[in-house]
Amino acid sequence: MSEALMGVYNRAPLEVERGNGMWLHTRDGRTFLDCVAGIATNCLGHAHPRLVAALEEQARKLWHVSNIFRIPGQEELAARLVGATFADAVFFGNSGSEAVECALKAARRYHAVNGAPERIDIVGFAGSFHGRTYAAVNASGNPAYLDGFGPRLPGYVQLTIDDRAAIDEAVRRPTTAAVIVEPVQGEGGARALDGEWLSWLRRLCDAHGVLLIHDEVQSGMGRTGRLFAHQWFDGAEPDIMAVAKALGGGFPIGACLATAAVAGAMTVGAHGSTFGGNPLAMAVGIAAFDEIAREETLANVRAASDRLTTGLRDLVARFPDVAIDVRGKGLLIGIRMVPNNREIMALARDHGLLVAGGGENCIRLLPPLTITLDEADEVLRRIEATFAAARVRFAAAA
Ligand SMILES: *Cc1c(COP(=O)(O)O)cnc(C)c1O
């Protein structure tokens, strides 16, 4: 590993050179089935022809101009996002953290301009992940991401999903601005929240004038088989939503979506970004949106998800000494492991399969939304071989 890089990552020893659909090829000639997909970003697979064409065409015209000018691509992609969601307006950044940052700022600003500047508290949940900026790590409250960076920011409250009494109490407080939640917790280990809980939270926020923020950075853009995960449920729509990861199909884009009431508080000068929403990002984002939002794509997610989860449940039943359960939603799938998940990830690599890690000792499968049923079967075969190897290795170690 290069000493010229900050050592903040635990990198797998693979030098990937080229990707094609859900396959990755390394410099030393090995081929892997990719169930990481750039952590749920390369949602249409690697080198998707339509995205490549959009990028190449725009690259010859104009990359970047600054938000002091009109950017037609932003207006187009925003119109698509607004047309497909609860939202009335969009702000574009470059990442999930920036989308979350904008969401948190917009929530506080909304109350400030509506005569309640004392409403600053953001309620977040254990097991969540919202990114790595100061606001995002404080909102998620994960001590591993907060330690050594000075005092925690004021105005962040940490609760657990299951403690409805504490949530109820927090939302009633006159200093609460917003609640932020991932409808499907991603990094936390593919924990899908149910519709009853999400709509209960929506009603609670409404009753007390508190804003609801959904972080759909990972669960959004088709990942669960609907364009956004909360759209599976009635009465669960947020006031503000952070979107990124798959939004650019692998190109860095983030977006904060909001209702007109919230967006109205974000007046000239309230927020900004140098690169956010530049023409290159928007050209790719529009192409990605149009592919992802096709009913065929979303139907494929649901079919592939059924195939994978059925097969995985069967494997868990056959390998109870290796895997505990299967959870998640759509193609955001977690498998809780008995052995350390990092060891399973390495064993999976030995079997030509790339998977991500997750909280609660999960391995996470985030294949592209375009995975075929044959590829899903191949994923299952490789997981079976991985579990069989794990059984031998960890039985020998015990
Ligand atoms: C990945 C992720 C983020 C952070 O996105 P970055 O692009 O890494 O800043 C925020 N929220 C959720 C739910 C994520 O999965």
Automatic annotation (TrEMBL):
Pathway(s) where this gene product acts: Amino-acid biosynthesis; L-arginine biosynthesis; N(2)-acetyl-L-ornithine from L-glutamate: step 4/4
Highest taxon of the lineage: Bacteria
One biological process term in Gene Ontology: L-arginine biosynthetic process
Keywords on record: Amino-acid biosynthesis, Aminotransferase, Arginine biosynthesis, Cytoplasm, Pyridoxal phosphate, Transferase
Catalytic reaction list: N(2)-acetyl-L-ornithine + 2-oxoglutarate = N-acetyl-L-glutamate 5-semialdehyde + L-glutamate
Enzyme class: transferase
Alphabetical list of CDD domains matching this protein: OAT_like (cd00610)
Pfam families documented for this protein: Aminotran_3
Cofactor note: Binds 1 pyridoxal phosphate per subunit.
Binding positions (N(2)-acetyl-L-ornithine): 132, 273
Gene Ontology CC annotations of this record: cytoplasm
Residues found modified as N6-(pyridoxal phosphate)lysine: 245
EC number(s) given by UniProt: 2.6.1.11
InterPro entries tied to this protein: AcOrn/SuccOrn_fam, Aminotrans_3, Aminotrans_3_PPA_site, Class-III_PLP-dep_AT, PyrdxlP-dep_Trfase, PyrdxlP-dep_Trfase_major, PyrdxlP-dep_Trfase_small
GO molecular function: identical protein binding; N2-acetyl-L-ornithine:2-oxoglutarate 5-aminotransferase activity; pyridoxal phosphate binding
SUPFAM superfamilies reported in the protein's UniProt record: PLP-dependent transferases (SSF53383)
Cofactor(s) this protein requires: pyridoxal 5'-phosphate
Binding-site residues, pyridoxal 5'-phosphate: 129, 215-218, 274
Subcellular location: Cytoplasm
Summary of subunit composition and partner proteins: Homodimer.
UniProt similarity note: Belongs to the class-III pyridoxal-phosphate-dependent aminotransferase family. ArgD subfamily.
HAMAP family named in the record: ArgD_aminotrans_3
Additional observations: May also have succinyldiaminopimelate aminotransferase activity, thus carrying out the corresponding step in lysine biosynthesis.
NCBIfam families reported for this sequence: argD (TIGR00707), PRK01278.1 (NF002325)
Protein name: Acetylornithine aminotransferase
Source organism of the structure: Sphingomonas leidyi
Gene name tied to this protein: argD
